[in-house]
Design a protein that fits this description.
Layout lengths: L12 H9 L4 H8 L3 H9 L19 H9 L2 H5 L3 H8 L8 H10 L24 E11 L2 E10 L5 E6 L4 H14 L6 E4 L24 H8 L3 E4 L9 H13 L9 H17 L11 H11 L12 H12 L17 H9 L1
């Protein structure tokens, strides 16, 4: 294997070996090779011809052996393949005095400071800044041994707060019911909703214009938006990346559940998805949020502009009764469906934080 020399070196391993084997006086040998006599004496005292290691001895570190074991021995980097900043955000709660440079030096010492080339990520253009309350909504299929399940998902563009529900179909009725539940579940007023052009959210493009359109009412999803003062925006047809946040969150949920685990029944799949979304909302530190959780971001928004958020829940008594039956499992077969964030009672956590 080829050797790598230091930048200021003037000798090679072959010349150094000649220094060690020669009986010529140091001054004469230095004049012959054009080097300093001290160089001759230095290599004659050594038993090897390799360059000595540079840098501080021992290498600078603020991590203890136990803390380094968390980073390396447990192979956190090799298992997760996270970027340096993402690792820093995940380990800050565990290692109090961890800095970005200390983590980088630790990874370098163990030869895992670079990710495999196959895992490099393309640069993406960032969203411009928006006011909290811009929600992306989408649906996807979760396939399992007994068939498939439709997952409706809503994620806020600013706070990244996520809400999910399960249905057997993805029609107009399901899309409208999901929107009403999203409005009730989110802790602040929603002012914009972005969806694709699916039948659950909009009419077909060919049916949106023409003489017949004037005789028909708006799509039922649009009527619910008008009822709650929400502006409904649609993505450009055949451009799913326009709704990229919801698409990416669908993929994140799938990677953490059906692509990693096998479920014996549908209820186990539902419970795992709900647990993952709950952990994402209240415990996941996101780089896009300056390493805050979605819930912490909502709390910070409340402190800045309280008028943007709901001070009290305006859900009717009928909705409260339905919610209790859904969580307790005492309702009908269709009512026993667990509805995302309702089962984790985010309102209670919100009121406790405010108190």
């Amino acid at each position: 294997m080829a050797s790598v020399f230091q930048g200021s070196t003037r000798t090679t391993p072959r010349v150094r070996a000649e220094f060690q084997a020669s009986q010529t006086p140091s001054r004469a040998l230095a004049a012959q090779y054009g080097v300093n006599p001290k160089t001759i004496l230095k290599w004659r005292k050594r038993t090897s011809t390799a360059d000595a290691a540079m840098g501080p001895r021992p290498k600078s570190t603020v991590l203890t052996a136990a803390e380094e074991a968390i980073v390396v021995v447990v192979e956190f980097r090799r298992t997760t393949l996270l970027l340096l900043d993402e690792m820093l955000g995940s380990l800050r709660d565990t290692i109090a005095n961890l800095s970005r440079s200390a983590l980088h030096r630790c990874l370098q010492r163990h030869g895992i400071s670079r990710l495999p080339k196959d895992d490099t990520r393309d640069s993406r253009k960032r969203f411009k800044s928006y006011v909290i309350g811009y929600v992306h909504i989408d649906s996807c299929e979760l396939r399992h041994a007994d068939g498939k399940l439709i997952l409706f998902l809503a994620i806020d563009r600013v706070s990244k707060f996520t809400y999910v529900e399960f249905y057997e179909r993805a029609g107009k009725a399901q899309g409208t019911e999901f929107l009403r539940n999203v409005v009730a579940a989110f802790l602040y007023k929603i002012h914009n909703v972005l969806t694709d052009n699916g039948s659950a959210f909009a009419d077909l493009p060919k049916n949106r214009e023409g003489p017949t359109r004037r005789l028909l009412d708006p799509h039922i999803f649009d009527r619910v938006c008008i009822e709650h003062g929400i502006e409904h925006r649609l993505t450009k047809p055949y451009h799913p990346w326009t709704n990229g946040q919801a698409e990416r969150m669908n993929r994140t949920v799938k990677d953490a559940t059906i692509k990693t685990f096998h479920y014996s029944d549908i209820e186990s799949l539902k419970a795992h998805v709900l647990a993952f979304v709950s952990a994402y909302n209240f415990a996941k530190h996101l780089k896009a949020l300056q390493w805050r959780t979605p819930f912490k971001t909502i709390c910070d928004a409340w402190k800045r502009t309280q008028t943007r958020l709901k001070s009290t829940r305006t859900t009717s008594s009928r909705d409260h009764t339905s919610r209790e039956s859904n969580c307790s499992g005492t309702g009908s077969a269709s009512d026993r469906r667990c509805r995302g964030s309702r089962c984790i009672k985010p309102a209670s956590a919100w009121e406790a934080h405010r108190g």
